[in-house]
Amino acid sequence: MAVPRVFIIRHGETEWSLNGRHTGTTELQLTENGEKRIRATGSALVGEDRLIRPSNLAYIYVSPRRRAQRTLELLGLGCREKFPWNSERQHGEEDVRTEAKVEVTQDIREWDYGNYEGLTSAQIRAELRERGGNEPWDIWKHGCPGGESPADVTQRVDRLITDIRQRFHSRHFGESKDANSTGDVLVVAHGHILRAFAMRWVGKPLEDGPNLILEAGGVGTLR
Questions:
Q1: Residue 36 contacts by C-beta under 8 Å, 6 or more apart in sequence?
Q2: Which residues are catalytic?
Q3: For the chain, what is the radius of gyration of the CA atoms?
Q4: φ and ψ at 102, to 5 degrees?
Q5: pLDDT digits (tens, 9 = 90+) for 34-83
Q6: What does each C-alpha distance from 66 to 12, 21, 34, 190, 222 come to in angstroms?
Q7: Distance (Å) of CA 78 to CA 94, 116, 207, 217
Q8: Which is nearest to 184 in space by CA: 99, 104, 108?
Q9: Is this model's pTM higher than 0.70 or not?
């Protein structure tokens, strides 16, 4: 029996991701190139003979931000149920490929950047120097004034991880394991929060900083 996996996918390119501006609560559309690349990702990675097998997906979590939801739409998973933000399903019965349900959850929204929303890292560091700050800014250690701290982010991604392990992965292990159940989970969200999620998945504190690089439209696999 295959070990269940968690696939993490960062939303496609936006104007702000192109120039490095921190995008938390701001709603932005994908660029034309961003949509094109996500469609290509779906074609390359989604299918019964590909990395992400729709029939093996148990559940899909997605951020409440529209850029993440649009990314999920463009992957072409073929969900039987309509997406929660749409009034009807966007494809016919012949294109249904998965029974996985989709949940929009605040637990995987992007890091709340607070006062740093819309700024680049260089602008943030320059602003701190002007105020007389000596220590270089590091979001994984310092968080964001007016937004979230590493402890805040840890609390909500840990809650989501617990939910995934208890609801979908526990059935594959121990005396009660079910060899016939699906177990893969897909999470579609954002750059910082997905790297935080990956660190917490392996029990690593955010203050240690990430090893994972996840560009716009990037895909990762966790076991």
A1: none
A2: 11, 110
A3: 18
A4: -110, 130
A5: 999 999 999 999 999 999 999 999 999 999 999 999 999 999 999 999 99
A6: 11, 17, 13, 11, 24
A7: 9, 37, 38, 19
A8: 99
A9: yes
